[in-house]
Amino acid sequence: MQAKIKAGYDNNRVCLADAVPLEAPFSIALSSSQKCNFRCRYCSQSLGPEEKKSHGYNDVLMEWDTFLKIVEQLKEFGTPMKRIAFTGLGEPLVNPRTPDMVKVLQEEKLAEVQVDLYTNGYLLDEEMTRRLVGAKLTRLRISLQGLTSEQYRDTVGVNVDFERLLKQIAYFYKHRGDTILYVKIMDAQLGEGQEKDFHALFGDICDEIFIEHLALAQPAMGDYEGRSDDKRTMFGEIAKERVVCHFPFFYLQIDAEGNVFPCPPLGLPRAFSLGNATTRPLKEIWNGETHKALVMSMLEGKMKELSTCSTCQNYKCFTDDADNLDDRRQEILQRFVESGSNV
To answer: Residue 223 above 60 pLDDT?
Structure first.
């Protein structure tokens, strides 16, 4: 096997407690699509239309004008983000303009480290491969839902030709250029003995490979019918309890309609939005009173008093020591007050 067994996060992390408050978010998640070609049973996409709306999102694609407005607003921060990722409530490749969006972000040098794209890979035909590689995508992350067509049908709710998917991934790897290909599957999707099968099938057609843990990433989905827990992070490490959720201090998620959220969980209620980028600049949202109130509440130890946060366990999906704010929250709180910063 040529691929490195490597967890899908950057080990070279800034100590967040030393860096905050930030003038600009480190990480931006863009949802170019809230439509998906799969209906994975552990994902919000498996919910019905009305239930989806109750969680605050519609099945729409990001309009090109909305994307360009977001690009101009990202430039207003005056410093590049460390990372911009196409991810969210839908499959990015359902939106035919996603490769064009990648190209713009790279040409504008809006990501210091990388532009990522998360995909199920089923729309990754030869043309899409050429467009993504040509757009200078930094990293493509493919999430597998099984190792056979039968497993896929059970998980995603539609018929999938697994052999076709395998060939498409091999084609991308062969023509990837400078793009890093990361292939992963969740432990809950593997049957007995299939870990070896996973490495055998994909270990020579990707750069990095990993088996992730099905962590409690989406509050709307609960504990995935008892198939997951909050004991381990999505990378299989011991999950640590935290007083302060670190995400609002460095992260913004922007959905296909321009709604801006302070953290990565999918299907967040619209009421938890910090604002909308089509009507209010991102820099103003990042430095706004709503965001300020949220991070202050976190630092004051009130995370579980916030209605949306009270039942959320997403912060346990990744609890790297570099992101721990708990031990220094009083110092950080004072730093925010003295700086007059809203975030």
So the answer is: no
